[in-house]
Amino acid sequence: NSAFAADIFKFERIFPALQQPWYFDTPNGIAVDEYGFVYLVDTDNNRIQKYSIDGQFIAKWGGFYQPHGIVTDKMGFVYVTDSGNHRIRKFTTDGDFVREWKTDGFHTGITIDRKNFIYTIRTDDLCVYKYTSEGSFIKKWQMFNEEVTADIHLLIGIAADDKDFIYVSDIQNHLIRKFTADGDFIIQWGGKRRYSGTIGICQQVLLLIGMGMFMFVMIIMTEFRNSIRMEIL
């Protein structure tokens, strides 16, 4: 009796739960190179995954612990903030290791300007760090002039535009702050409010992850671990 069976047996889950090798687990950073290949930081799987622009899987490589940010340069190199290991790592676009340099603290976002200078965010001291593409430290600057603590700000994303202005997102307070390449503060905007529209009502959480091809890319995250929505402004 099918009705009787339906009352007794209810689908619970499939086991064993075997994830496919290309599944993401808390993806964070994303970058696109000069040829249109897409690189994604698969944070909780501690790896980088490379795709074609139409989503075809190409390659992956690991050796990280809690990586967060990624950026590519015009010379064909990929830079990753290996946050949990406190270092920045440089690779070819095929994932071959080139060099690395150590960092103090927990660095998340990373970007590169037209002159090939690298910028990262350190979340525990609320500073932006500037390096050469070979890892030589140049300078750092504070995100905020006032006395603040890291527990009331969460700096994740950083990007450089085509005029070498630097943008940093504070997703705890839903702010974007703009600086010169030397760290001079220009302006900030944002604040806590709610979006509505085609993506529905969601908390305005801005995770600035990249700026390429002169497009300002923001991620509005509705369900952090499982889904992301992208707006290109």
Description:
- The chain has 233 residues and is mainly beta.
- It has one helix at residues 2-8, and strands at 27-32, 38-42, 47-51, 57-61, 67-72, 77-82, 87-92, 97-102, 107-112, 118-122, 127-131, 137-142, 155-160, 166-170, 175-179, 185-190, 194-195, 202-203, 206-212, 215-223, 227-232.
- It has a single domain, classed as Neuraminidase.
- The chain starts with a helix and ends with a strand.
- It contains one helix and 21 strands.
- The longest helix is centred in the first third of the chain and has 7 residues, at 2-8.
- 27% of the residues are buried.
Write the layout of secondary structure elements.
Layout: H1 2-8, E1 27-32, E2 38-42, E3 47-51, E4 57-61, E5 67-72, E6 77-82, E7 87-92, E8 97-102, E9 107-112, E10 118-122, E11 127-131, E12 137-142, E13 155-160, E14 166-170, E15 175-179, E16 185-190, E17 194-195, E18 202-203, E19 206-212, E20 215-223, E21 227-232
Return the CATH topology.
Neuraminidase
Structural class assignment: mainly beta
Provide the spatial order of strands within the biggest beta sheet: 1-2-3-4
- N→C terminal distance: 57 Å
Query: What percentage of amino acids are in beta strands?
Result: over 45%
Uncertain stretches of 5 or more adjacent residues = 194-233
Strand elements, count: 21
**Could you state the CATH homologous superfamily?**
TolB, C-terminal domain
- Which word captures the global form? globular
Throw out a few tags for this protein:
233 residues; mainly beta; Neuraminidase; 4-stranded antiparallel sheet; 1 helix; 21 strands; globular; disordered C terminus
